[in-house]
Amino acid sequence: VCPSATAPAAQPTRPTFSAILSLLALLLQGCGGQGPDTTWEVAHRGVHAATISPGCQYLVVGSIEHGASLWRVQDQERLYNWNHVAGDFSTVTTTAVSADGGYALTVEGASLVLWRTDSGQPQGFWTAPADITSAALTPDGMFALLGLTNQSAVLFNVQQGGVRHTWAHGSRVTSVDLSANGRLAVTGTEDGDIHLWNTQGGDQIRVYSLPAAIDLVRLSPDAGLSFATAAYAGAFAWNNQDTSQVFELPLPRYARLLGRRFTSAQFVDGGKAILLGDGQGRLQTWSLADGKRTGEWQADPRNPWNPQRGTTIAATQCGPGQTPLAVLSDGTVQRF
């Protein structure tokens, strides 16, 4: 529901604090945006984390009540239920899928399990030096890049064990990502720094900075661009060759002041655009070449009597029409 230019007459009242917050939420959410064509449920009470595999073959979900599960997107079928301890439901807060779709990673606290997607069987169970905030898998599922609460990131062999690299940071690592070939890594921190690393030799290549804690970092498919979002700062992309800034999301001033946060980000269109999702279930694509918005979609509320949309947990483009597929915090998957 969007604010109307006219409304029924009513006795003047002083706006309440909750009413002001609701109006601000509407302003941030905006109006318009195409709704979903298909919606299905993957978790009854909602999800903590989710990852859509490249090519949109699989979906890994960490639900609030029933641990993790692997879904096949094509026919919306749940293939396996995954938990870290037999007979108990794990609170999975981070997930990842390898580029070849052969492996999935689930994280609970400092524990991580690598799973085979063809058999559903665990491939390795490990414990990190600290709680894991973010994770990404190399294309073959051999290594996992882990962001940790102890101000470090590690590149860990999740099939055989052992740390290849440990990268110290000045604050808690909040987000990580790997290039499509696994040779470059990017990490973002609470102090606003974005680090680009060589996963082969372990050396640092670049450092970018924003004046706020980093929410998300991403690398374009060819690793030519680094992308980062931060509440109160916005969203930016840089050329990794010459460090020049090539994109800044044109956010209104009130959105920056109120700390609009993007909860998902994915390079699409061969790395020429970015697909962003937010806490109101809104999805937008932005061209990185000219900074213009090229598409907008709006998730439907799960409960028609509650207009609150779910937070976008993961989103990417799928199929011949390259339309968005999104996982929402309310436990639904919506295809547009």
Protein architecture, described:
The model is unreliable at 1-30 (pLDDT under 50). The protein is globular and about 50 Å long. The protein has 336 residues and is mainly beta. Strand 11 (143-148) and strand 12 form a beta hairpin. It contains two helices and 28 strands. The longest helix is centred in the first third of the chain and has 13 residues, at 17-29.
Overall pLDDT confidence: 90
> How far is the first residue's CA from the last residue's CA?
19 Å
Strand percentage lies at: over 45%
Low-confidence runs (pLDDT<50, min 5 residues)?
A: 1-30
Q: In angstroms, what is the radius of gyration? A: 20 Å
Q: How helical, in percent, are the residues?
A: under 10%
Sketch the major β-sheet. Answer: 4 strands, antiparallel
Describe the strand arrangement of the main beta sheet, using strand numbers.
1-28-27-26
Order of helices and strands: HEEEEEEEEEEEEEEEEEEEEEHEEEEEEE
Number of helices: 2
What class do helices, strands and sheet pairing give?
mainly beta
The backbone outline, from C-alpha atoms, is globular
- Structure summary, number of beta strands: 28
Keywords summarizing the entry:
mainly beta, 5% helix, 336 residues
Topology, pairings included?
Elements: H1 17-29, E1 38-41, E2 47-52, E3 58-63, E4 68-72, E5 77-82, E6 94-97, E7 103-108, E8 111-116, E9 122-127, E10 132-137, E11 143-148, E12 152-157, E13 163-168, E14 173-178, E15 184-189, E16 193-198, E17 204-209, E18 216-219, E19 225-230, E20 234-239, E21 245-248, H2 253-257, E22 262-268, E23 273-278, E24 282-287, E25 293-298, E26 312-318, E27 323-328, E28 332-335
Antiparallel strand pairs: 1-28, 2-3, 3-4, 4-5, 6-7, 7-8, 8-9, 10-11, 11-12, 12-13, 14-15, 15-16, 16-17, 18-19, 19-20, 20-21, 22-23, 23-24, 24-25, 26-27, 27-28
